[in-house]
Write a structure and sequence with these properties.
Structural class: mainly alpha
Helix content: over 70%
Strand order of the largest sheet: 1-2
Order of helices and strands: HHHHHHHHHHHHHHHEEHHHHHH
Radius of gyration: 23 Å
Number of strands: 2
Shape: globular
Bound molecules: beta-D-glucopyranose
Number of helices: 21
Length: about 500
């Protein structure tokens, strides 16, 4: 069995949390267009639709904030288990909704669980991963998110043929199945070794590391070395660190909190969820008329998103975080810009009887806009999708990791919430202007990443202290980090020479 098999296995099971995340945000997109749903809830206006869509993300915001304390106190593992049960409750309420209030409440409860999961899963994955495949393991949660979205789209598509309210109730209820699978599977998954050491259970941590790194061999040198590194880091942190939320605002964490919040906010400011939530109606506006055409286009979008995440899983630890984000931003910015020009130059707005907008684009412009949307999703999936979650999960010291990630994750959900709320209004009001705004943000993010975000690939979690205590100008700090690497190499060589 490959040495890292256990780490992959644990990473993959916990990634199921990402599946729930993806499914629940994806499931509404096509339901919004279902006739039975519209009639049952009395044809909600675009503002009301915004509220229904966004209440999930409001729940996620609250859930992710609470998860910081919960995951420290009760462990990452138990947080994931409890969240999967809360998720079942939220899904059941959504499925059985009798009115808008109940639907919104169900979305909020499921959101609490998704918020907790979105914080606890990447932290758990990064704590069980060996440094050289950490990016890949955390990417598994992103891949699971894309699978969740994809399966939600296609289940919606299949169910929209059903001639009753079951057309929207089934997609909402069926998500209970993966949540229960996650709950049961987590019984077979160990606690995070870093959390165990931090809770004075070094013996157990030793066993877990042996399982994760060396097929159970407790005497393997890499197991002993990593255990020592974690123990040492926890010891130093205990001597120097207080563990309050206020510490997040002080040196040496403040810089990382700003970067973590910024990267999560920027991930949402890519505008990915305008597409994930509302693509069906955007496709319709762009000329894909008939329910089926736009629903299928959304299903294809899900496939594109899932497939384009694969290169990131394979190579993110080779490409590095900085380069990948910069290329991703350029791709996103460019595709938005072309779509804005194609639409802006040719649109001729008219409104249907039910108030929905048509842009009446000529065929060429309409296809170009749709292709640009797909290429945007490719750029996002290969870069901002995974790294938005990887980066915050790997930059904080153990004693602040959970609290800090709850804040960074909450910023992701806050921006997600706001965008979900205003997007349907802006799509209608300023159409291509919204694409232009996102294009500008994406081009600006190229500079932000270049100037402020240090590279973190292949560094152990304990080494982040060195990376983040230099100049805040990442592009100028390379020399210091190179010197650090030379010293480390020198020490390793000296030790090897001593032994021989
Ligand atoms: C984002 C989600 C988004 C998804 C799309 C995730 O990384 O956080 O908001 O819907 O990617 O794949």
């Amino acid at each position: 069995m490959g040495k890292n098999f256990q780490a992959y296995f644990v990473g993959a099971v916990s990634a199921l949390g990402g599946f729930l995340f993806g499914y629940d945000i994806g499931v509404m997109s096509s339901i919004l267009e279902m006739e039975y749903w519209k009639v049952y809830f009395n044809r909600p206006s675009s503002v009301e639709v915004g509220v229904i869509v966004s209440l999930l993300t409001a729940g996620c915001f609250v859930g992710s904030l609470a998860a910081g304390w919960i995951a420290d106190k009760f462990s990452r593992k138990r947080t994931i288990m409890a969240s999967s049960l809360v998720f079942c409750l939220g899904a059941a309420i959504q499925c059985g909704s009798r009115n808008r209030g109940m639907l919104i409440a169900g979305r909020f409860v499921a959101g609490l669980a998704v918020g907790c999961l979105s914080m606890a899963v990447p932290v758990f994955q990064s704590e069980i991963a060996p440094a050289h495949i950490r990016g890949r393991l955390v990417s598994l949660q992103q891949w699971a998110i894309t699978w969740g979205l994809l399966i939600a789209f296609w289940i919606d598509y299949g169910c929209h043929f059903i001639d009753s309210d079951a057309s929207w109730r089934i997609p909402m209820g069926i998500q209970i199945v993966p949540a229960l699978i996650l709950f049961v599977a987590m019984f077979f998954i160990p606690y995070s070794p870093r959390w165990l050491v931090d809770h004075d259970q070094a013996e157990k941590a030793h066993q877990v590391l042996a399982r994760l790194r060396a097929n159970g061999d407790i005497n393997a040198p890499e197991v002993l070395a990593e255990l020592e590194e974690i123990k040492e880091a926890v010891r130093v942190e205990r001597e120097t660190a207080v563990r309050s939320y206020m510490d997040l605002l002080r040196f040496p964490i403040r810089r990382r909190i700003i970067l973590g919040v910024a990267i999560q906010a920027l991930q949402q400011l890519t505008g990915i969820n305008v597409i994930m939530y509302y693509a069906t109606s955007i496709f319709k506006q762009s000329g894909l008329t008939g329910d089926n055409a736009s629903l299928i286009a959304q299903g294809v979008n899900g496939v594109v998103n899932m497939l384009a995440t694969v290169p990131a899983i394979l190579w993110i630890d080779r490409w590095g975080r900085r380069k990948t984000l910069i290329f991703g931003s350029l791709g996103c910015g460019l595709t938005y810009f072309i779509k804005a020009v194609a639409t802006g130059a040719t649109q001729h707005k008219t409104y249907d009887e039910d108030g929905s907008l048509n842009l009446n684009l000529p065929k060429g412009a309409s296809y170009l806009a749709i292709v640009m949307m797909y290429l945007f999703v490719v750029s996002f999936a290969m870069s901002w999708g995974p790294i938005g979650w990887i980066y915050p999960s790997e930059i904080f010291p153990m004693h602040m990791r959970s609290k800090a990630n709850s804040i960074t994750t909450a910023s992701n959900w806050l921006f997600n919430f706001v965008i979900g709320l205003v997007a349907p209004i802006l799509i209608k009001k300023i159409t291509w202007g919204l694409d232009l705004i996102f294009a500008i943000i994406m081009f600006a993010s190229v500079g932000i990443i270049y100037l402020f975000f240090p590279e973190t690939k292949n560094r152990s979690l304990e080494e982040m202290e060195v990376i983040f205590t230099g100049s805040a100008w990442a592009h100028k700090d390379r020399k210091r980090i190179d010197e650090y690497d030379i010293t480390v190499q020198h020490n390793i060589d000296a030790k090897a020479a001593d032994k021989s």
